[in-house]
């Protein structure tokens, strides 16, 4: 493991997703799945999320669209929260899901709206 890249990723991951969520993910990881937590933290958050080519807000918008396309509601919930943290508005999230529905299928769009509404309710947004 690249310790400096992991630490950079951990910082970014906490800033976007919240310390509580990230710390729980790490705390609940065992011998079996800790390598995945390390990979995600170092590679996704340390390397990719910290690249200079796109800002965090844009990366969040892309993640919402891709997670809709892949129909990954658990990860979508996490990234809806992160998108709001990164300054994405509810109106922009609506537009991402409408666009994704056209290209990925209406059921994927409907599920994404449903998932986001749960997050909005939980966050009081």
Automatic annotation (TrEMBL):
PANTHER family in the record: 4-CARBOXYMUCONOLACTONE DECARBOXYLASE FAMILY PROTEIN, CARBOXYMUCONOLACTONE DECARBOXYLASE-LIKE DOMAIN-CONTAINING PROTEIN
InterPro entries for the chain: 4CMD/NDH-1_regulator, AhpD-like, CMD-like
Keyword terms, alphabetized: Lyase
Molecular function in Gene Ontology: 4-carboxymuconolactone decarboxylase activity; peroxiredoxin activity
Limits of the Carboxymuconolactone decarboxylase-like domain: 36-118
EC number of this enzyme: 4.1.1.44
Protein name: 4-carboxymuconolactone decarboxylase
Coiled-coil residue spans: none
Lineage: Bacteria, Pseudomonadati, Pseudomonadota, Betaproteobacteria, Burkholderiales
Top-level taxon in the UniProt lineage: Bacteria
EC supergroup of this enzyme: lyase
């Amino acid at each position: 493991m690249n310790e400096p890249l992991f630490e950079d990723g951990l910082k970014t991951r906490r800033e976007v997703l919240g310390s509580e969520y990230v710390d729980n993910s790490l705390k609940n990881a065992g011998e079996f799945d800790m390598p995945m937590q390390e990979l995600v933290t170092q590679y996704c958050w340390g390397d990719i999320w910290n690249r200079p080519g796109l800002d965090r807000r844009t990366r969040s918008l892309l993640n919402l669209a891709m997670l809709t396309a892949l129909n990954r509601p658990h990860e979508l919930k996490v990234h809806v929260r992160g998108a709001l943290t990164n300054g994405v508005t509810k109106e922009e999230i609506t537009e991402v899901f409408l666009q994704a529905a056209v290209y990925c299928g209406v059921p994927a769009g409907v599920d994404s709206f449903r998932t986001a509404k749960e997050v909005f309710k939980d966050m009081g947004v």
